[in-house]
Amino acid sequence: MGVRKCGTRALLEMLYLHPMVQKASGEVHFFDRDENYNKGLEWYKMQMPHSHYGQITIEKSPSYFVTPEVPERIRAMNASVKLLLIVREPVTRAISDYTQLRANAATASPATFPTPAPKTFEQLVLHSNGSVNEGYRPLAISVYHHYLHRWLEVFPREQLLIVNGDQLIEDPVPQLKRIEKFLGLESKIGSHNFYFNETKGFYCLRNETSNRCLRETKGRKHPRVDPHVVSKLRKYFGEHNQKFYELVGEDMGWPED
Ligand SMILES: Nc1ncnc2c1ncn2[C@@H]1O[C@H](COP(=O)(O)OS(=O)(=O)O)[C@@H](OP(=O)(O)O)[C@H]1O
After folding, report:
1. What are phi and psi for residue 15, nearest 5 degrees?
2. ipTM exceeds 0.90, yes or no
3. What is this structure's pTM?
4. 198 C-alpha vs ligand 1 centroid, how far in Å?
5. Separation of 7 CA from ligand 1 center, angstroms?
6. Any idea which residues carry the catalytic annotation?
7. Fold of 8-248
8. CB within 10 Å: which end of the chain, N or C, has fewer?
9. Where is 3'-phosphoadenylyl sulfate annotated to bind (predicted)?
C-alpha cells in the first residue's frame, strides 16, 4: 500500500522470488482512481496474474497509502487482506521524492532554450524565514502517522506489517523472512537470491534463470543537501516519528538531528 519512494517496487520484485507468490506487473491503481474503481471488482481481478491454488497474489500502488478512500474500499473487498507498508527514514524519503519529481519534470519538458534552474530541495522545503514548508508535498507524505491512522481505524494492527525500507536496501533477507512469516509462507527466499552490484550500489535479484537489477529509476543518485537543512528537517520529523512509532508499536530508530 506504499509508501511512495520507500522501496515498493524492490519489495514486490523480491517477494516474487518466492515460488508461492504471483504479482501484478504494473501499478494497478484500482482503489485510488475512481475511473478504475468504478469499473468494479471483476476489472480488478482481470488485472491480476493467474495463480495456482495456495499461491498469494500481490500488487503495489504506492498512492493507496495517501488516498483517503482507499482503506475502506479495500476492506469492502476483503476485510481479512494482509497489508504491507514499507517506510523509510522520512527525510531520505522526501529527498528521493524530490529527486524523482525533478527527473520527471526534466523528461516532460526537455530544455530546448535556456530555462530557469529548477529550485533546489533546500529552497522548496524551507520558507524564506527559515521555517519548514509543511505544505511541500514530499515533506507532507513523509508524515506517516497523518495517513496511517485512517488505515488503523479500518484494519486491525495484526493485518499490517511495517517493513523497514532502509534495512531492505542494506540487507534484504531478514526483512523478507519477516514478511514470509507474516504471509504464512514457507521460508524460501535467502541470500542465494541476491548479489550486490557495485556499480548500481544496490542488491540485485537472482533466481534459477536470471540475474537482474531494478531499473535505473530505482536507486537514483540524490543531490547533496545542506547538512543544516537535513538536521532541521530531522528535528521537525522527530515529533511526527514518535506519533508513528506509537501508532505501530515499533520504534524505527530514525535520527532526530
Ligand atoms: N535493491 C534495490 N535496487 C534499487 N532500488 C532499491 C532497492 N531496494 C530499495 N530500493 C529503493 O527503492 C526506491 C524507490 O522506491 P519505490 O519503488 O517505492 O518508488 S515509487 O514510489 O514506486 O516511484 C529507490 O529510491 P532512490 O534511491 O531514491 O531511487 C531505492 O532507494
Report:
1. -65, -30
2. yes
3. 0.96
4. 16
5. 4
6. 5
7. Rossmann fold (3.40.50)
8. C
9. 5-9, 88, 96, 203, 218-222
